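Bench log, entry 3. Co-assembly request; chain sequences pasted below exactly as received.
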Amino acid sequence: MESAVIEKPKPAPKAKKTMSDKWYGGLLITPAMVIILIFALIPLFYAVNVSFRHADLTMGGIQGWVGLNNYRTVLHEAKFWATVKTTLVFTCVAIIVEMSLGVLIAFLIYGATWGKGLIRSLVILPLATAPAVTGLFWRYLYDTQFGPFNYFISLLGLPWHPNWLGDIKLGMASLIIFDTWLWVPFVALIVLAGLQSLPKEPFEAAELDGASTFRVLRTLTAPMLGPVLTLVFILRTIDLLRLYDSVATLTRSGPGDTTETMTYYLYRQGLVFFRMDYASTMALLFMFAVIVASGFALRPLLTRLAKRAGAR
Amino acid sequence: MLQQKESKATVILRYTIITLILVAILFPIVWLILTSFKPAEDIMVYPPHFTFKPTLDNYIYALQKANFLMFIKNTLLDAVVSTAFVIVLSSLAAYSFARYNPGGGNILFFILTTKMFPAIAVVLPYFLIFKEIGNTSVGNFLQIGLDKPGALIVSYTMFNLPFAIWLIVSFFQDIPRELEDSARLDGYNRLQVLRKVVLPLAMPGIAVTAIFCLIFSWNEFLFAYVLTRDAARTITVGVESFFTLRGILWGPVAAAATISVVPMLVFVLFLQRYMVRGLTFGAVRG
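Structure output for the full assembly:
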């Protein structure tokens, strides 16, 4: 469908008086690009600069060069690696739970014969809420004494009385359950959209041939859903690694420091202890890791999109 | 994947599981709204009360004690102004990317990589920069600085811009190019084509993008938490302030949280058709 459009000669009756497409296109993106460049690059340069200096805001602010000392200190700090580990454990478990539950829910809704629209509009609702606000309220849901969760557990007759946010064995699980509640709808909706946009013909052909459900899933559905699943996986991973809001309001890095993720530690270093040098160094290391990992994974997908955007 | 052969048992099983999932998803939201209307003596009780005499006490408390009207005003101001900026800037840029493709996809890709900066890494330098700017007369005049609305408007504009550009590009692509070509033949110049042909057609998409930007700014927590102290506080951070008063007052917390959450719930109910497209930068057509 594209080729016909591209080959059509450009009508340019006033071509001499107007500027070329190239300049016009460039002009239109300039305001947005100026803003993006200024506000993305200034913080970046700022962080790079501070990461090579001594910067204790409680004592004299930003001072002289210290070379790579901050990087050395941060990389040798056990606490830093502990928060990296917490972040990775959280991300790995949460991504597995969210992806599998999300795909399951998507298939359930896809197969529903009636009420699909209603189900979809209800499933979507957690996505509209602010994690910081619902995270705060979940402290009440998790409450050992008055919380409805423990009441439901007692209704089931289980002799289990968990202290969700106080037991060091459960803190991480509580955080993951909350994050799952918040983000499973996202995974489910996107996988559902992917399922609905699959072409019908191959599936009808497979049915005529008498292929088993499992065979259809393995040879048709899975490969065709691949790109959508990859995209959800990467977007979710980036967000999980960056998790901050729910830690800040739901667990506050506790119990103990069992849910202290990297971003929360970064926040404390920078804005509680005011050690901007360490905070900037960690921020850069973190940013670098995320961009390298996600950038490589996303690049093929995104360039294809960008190409489709441009070359019509 | 065809469903004709499903037995009655399968259908019942499917809907039972779906119902359970819906209950799990909706319970926290329903409970939040219920709690906001509960009298204090019905909140900290065991077993939890499902019936009670609804009251507006929590809302009155929230609106009086914590200056909640100001939080709402600030949040609206930040969200609306930043969204206006974002929509103007991103519509122009997205149109250019959809039609002229400057940079052959590389610029568009670069724009998205700025979304991969962890917000926390950006907010620390912003804190220091806004602290400096706030002390200058320019910063004072433009209301940009710590605890001033300009700081959040600038921040929200910045972080919604990449997303908005990507989303609007996907809507512009759906507009057939032939329409523009024939408008040019009819003697419209480029700006007229953009204003009178393309923008009206793209309006639904632009509106959806605007609502997304409003939701993101409205729900934003980290920047608001770090860059404001008092006068420029927003609602998401304001909800937290009930922590410090005396213990945790769950009634007012729930009332405040409900005020913060319900407007966006309503938006999303209308938006659901476009949610997928929005959340994946237009990569998946919803």
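Chain A touches chain B through 120 residues (CB under 8 Å). The longest helix of chain A spans residues 276-310.
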